[in-house]
Amino acid sequence: MSAKEQILARIRRALPEPRPDTAVPRDYLQVHGARTPAETVDLLAENLAEYRAKVHRVDEDGIAVLLARLLAERGASSVLVPPGLPPHWLAAADPTRIHDRAASTPHQLDAVDSVVTGCALAIAETGTIVLDGGPEQGRRRITLVPDHHICVVRVPAQVVDSVPRALPLLDPTKPLTWISGPSATSDIELDRVEGVHGPRTLEVVLLGAQ
User: Helix, strand, coil shares of the chain as percentages rounded to 5?
Assistant: First the structure.
């Protein structure tokens, strides 16, 4: 028996026997307050901005022009494109399309200027975007390595009020990435440093909201 197995065996012996009739109480609030769908979207936008994400609102007719403008303002010459991203979203954009390929190395991904994706859902109360590796999002690493991430959220369809409302809608077997603002840390002398574990700049497009 290995040391690890010995430790785990001791832990099992120290724990009380589980009781199948003991249910975990889940009587906490599912959502804090009553909101209309529009108010929920407004709360999401407010909390995203609080986390220093840049928030934009646009309808379906204007998304191609908006994305082209955001990429141009960034000076992006290349944009990473997940396999299921709607083609018309980038119809007006000039940057070279780099497709999501399993063979791409981290060094190659780091050379990409921007990435544009959809999302699985967004949580209003926490200002969180959740990705699950779906066709509009691509593999997890394409949203962690490039320095600029534009994420499109369909509203109100992809917006939920709270984490308890979000969890039943997500598949725990998928590679879930939870994003609350740009990647940042204040570990060193409490100085905020952005772009440590992911994109330095996060822009969220609320598609359908005006």
Answer: 30, 20, 50
Q: What angle do CA 112, 117, 122 make, to 5 degrees?
A: 135
Average pLDDT over residues 81-109: 94
| 20: pLDDT strictly greater than 80 | no
Cα gap 94→96, rounded to integer Å: 7
Superfamily of domain 35-207: NagB/RpiA/CoA transferase-like (3.40.50.10420)
Q: pLDDT category, 16, cuts 50, 70, 90?
A: confident
Which residues, at least 6 apart from 49, have a Cβ–Cβ distance to it below 8 Å?
Answer: 55
Q: Is 194 left (phi over 0), alpha (psi -120 to 50) or beta?
A: beta
> Domains of the chain: which residue ranges?
35-207
- pTM of whole model > 0.90? no
Distance CA 123, CA 56 (A): 16
- The two tokens of residue 72 are 């141009």
Backbone angles phi, psi at 171, to 5 degrees: -95, 110
Amino acid at 135: P
